[in-house]
Structure formats: structure tokens, C-alpha cells
Specification:
By secondary structure, the protein is of the alpha/beta class. The protein is built from eight helices and ten strands. The two termini are 22 Å apart. Bound molecules: 2-amino-2-deoxy-6-O-phosphono-alpha-D-glucopyranose (GLP).
């Protein structure tokens, strides 16, 4: 795992967007795994800016989102399909037919989960998986006790997640209590993982995810098993890390990161 600490949330999101843009430029057929949440809004805003100012081309790439609420149609503005269309897809030149999210309104949800897994396989897997970090330590909606080998499936949302995301709903009582999510095992199969977390409220869970023991109670700890996982955070989210100085030294000195130091 690599850990990069940027001065603030904007700089952290900018670095993540730059890594994604660089990979997309070197492989226009990139298969991107995408995430939602407030943190990602800055990343998508930067990607849209790269598209407008630097002609970053999305026309050949494909995307798979991590998760979707059960029961929300794409027209519902609380659905993740709506979020993605709004923040990214309709603002760049991506072909909507190449964008994939689980269908939370499918009549047979288990079948929909299998179909989603097959679809990822048909695209030969995910090249770069973007990840956020939930208050409960989840990646996707892999709530506490998610098996570290789990596949795409329906999960009941944990109380911490309901509390964290309820504010995004006009009427919190209407927030779905279940979601379809890629499994931890599905996520670990992506060729590269890129996790972004910012803010003081993420400091405690970032320390557990990065420096704590691997546990199904905090699905983000499974990323310690991934061969190529980059975690990007801001100073506020880094405040509880024991090894922060060491991680800073690596970012400042490793040749790989030279182009990203500014
Ligand atoms: C939701 C998503 C997660 C995401 C999390 C972070 O719960 N299902 O994939 O990581 O939000 O949210 P935020 O960026 O708003 O803190």
C-alpha cells in the first residue's frame, strides 16, 4: 500500500484525478471502477475540467460503479446512477452504453448481482478502481462483517452508514436500507485501487484501515492485501496515523511520484 498525504481536500482530489487522467491517456480503453459520495464530487469536477480544458477523452473507456441503492430508479436523484450522470457522465464525452451500475430495481436482485459480476468479467476486469471510505470503514457498501472474499450482492446498510448518508435524502426516512455492492473480493481483483478520504472525521477510520489489523469488521482493511493500492488523504485525515512522516518521505522521494509533486 502507498499512502500519499496532500495539504487539503482539493489537493488530494486533484492528485486522484490526475492519476486517473494519466491512466486514461495512456490507455483510452481503460476500464474504470467508480465510487460515489461527497468526497468524489471534487474528483469528478476535476475530470470534467480536464475534459474541457485539455480534451481528456472518455469516448473509448468503460466504467463500473461500486454500488447502488435497492429500489431507487435511475430517475431518482438520490440514486447513484443519477449522481454519476450528473457529476460526470453527462459532462464528458463518455458513451453512456459503456457506463455500468447495478440495477437496484431489478426484479431478481441476486440474478442482477450475478449479471454484474459477469459483465465485469466480460470487460476483462477493472483496471483502476476508485474508492471512498465510509464512516463504518466500508468500501463500496461492504458493511461490517463483509466476507473478505465476498462478491457482488445485496447488503443491509449499517446504522453508521444510514446516519452518514441520510442527510443526502430530502426525507431521511425514505433512504433505502439495502444496496447492491461489489464484494470485497470483487474489488480486490481490480488491477489497481485508488482510495480517497479527506477531512478530520475520516482520521480515525483511515488510521484503522491503513495501520490496523485486517478485519471483516472494517472492509477497507482488506486493501492491505491488494498488490497495488494507493491511498490519498489530506492532512486532516492523516492526523491519527502513526507513520505519517515516513509516508510523506516516500511521496517526496520516490521517483514514481515526481510528476505529481507540486
Ligand atoms: C457511500 C458509498 C461509498 C463511499 C462513501 C463515502 O457510502 N457507498 O462507496 O465510499 O459513500 O462517502 P462520503 O464521500 O460522502 O464520505
Amino acid at each position: 500500500m502507498e499512502l500519499i498525504i496532500r495539504p487539503d481536500a482539493d489537493a488530494a482530489a486533484d492528485l486522484v484525478a490526475q492519476i486517473m487522467a494519466r491512466d486514461l491517456r495512456s490507455n483510452p480503453h481503460l476500464v474504470l471502477g467508480l465510487a460515489t459520495g461527497r468526497t468524489m464530487e471534487r474528483v469528478y469536477a476535476r475530470l470534467v475540467q480536464f475534459h474541457r480544458d485539455e480534451a481528456l477523452d472518455f469516448s473509448l473507456c468503460s466504467t463500473f460503479n461500486l454500488d447502488e441503492y435497492v429500489g431507487l430508479p435511475s430517475s431518482d436523484r438520490h440514486s447513484y446512477r443519477y449522481y454519476m450522470n450528473h457529476h460526470l457522465f453527462l459532462q464528458v464525452n463518455i458513451d453512456l452504453r459503456n457506463t455500468h451500475l447495478p440495477d437496484g430495481t431489478a426484479p431478481d436482485l441476486d440474478l442482477e448481482c450475478q449479471r454484474y459480476e459477469q459483465s465485469i468479467r466480460r470487460f476483462n476486469g477493472i483496471d483502476l478502481q476508485l474508492l471512498g471510505l465510509g464512516q463504518a470503514g466500508h468500501i463500496g457498501f461492504n458493511e461490517p462483517l463483509s466476507a473478505l472474499r465476498s462478491r457482488t450482492r445485496v447488503k443491509a446498510l449499517a446504522p453508521a452508514t444510514l446516519a452518514q448518508n441520510a442527510g443526502l435524502f430530502d426525507d431521511p426516512a425514505l433512504m433505502p436500507r439495502r444496496a447492491i455492492t461489489m464484494g470485497v473480493g470483487t474489488i480486490l481483483e481490480s488491477r489497481r485501487c485508488l482510495l480517497l478520504a479527506t477531512g478530520e472525521h475520516k482520521a480515525d477510520i483511515i488510521a484503522k484501515a491503513v495501520e490496523g489489523p485486517i478485519t471483516a469488521m472494517i472492509s477497507a482493511t482488506a486493501l492491505q492485501l491488494h498488490q497495488r493500492c494507493t491511498v490519498v488523504i489530506d492532512e486532516a485525515a492523516a492526523s491519527r496515523l502513526e507513520g505519517a512522516d515516513y509516508y510523506r518521505w516516500i511521496f517526496e522521494n520516490e521517483p514514481e511520484w515526481e510528476a505529481f509533486r507540486r
